[in-house]
């Protein structure tokens, strides 16, 4: 499954317990882009992980840092701060954009 960020349609649940953390992602209806205030956001008592096609589980802070560093690079390319040439990723982006349907499957 592919998720296209930027339209406010990605639902992300996150949390954890001591020593373990998780991020769960699924597609939803578009809304305002941004982080929900943790104090006012709905906090479900139960989330079925099977409803989230993309789940990231962490038990090592170095793994979290590696994902954060990768996202910082992606952020810089989106902002136009720099260009990271990677032929395989560039090819995927160009093929998807040429289809004219965004990142939908």
Quote the average pLDDT.
Answer: 81
Number of strands: 3
Question: Helix/strand-derived class?
Answer: alpha+beta
Radius of gyration: 16 Å
pLDDT < 50 runs, ≥5 residues: none
Query: In which range does the helix fraction lie?
Result: 25-40%
* SS element count, helices: 2
N to C succession of SSEs: EEEHH
Shape: globular
The major β-sheet equals:
3 strands, antiparallel
Q: What portion of the residues fall into strands of 2 or more residues?
A: 15-25%
For the terminal residues, how far apart are their CA atoms?
Answer: 8 Å
Give, in spatial order, the strands making up the sheet with the most strands: 1-2-3
Brief digest:
The protein has two helices and three strands; from the N terminus they run E-E-E-H-H. It has 105 residues and is of the alpha+beta class. The chain is globular, with a radius of gyration of 16 Å.
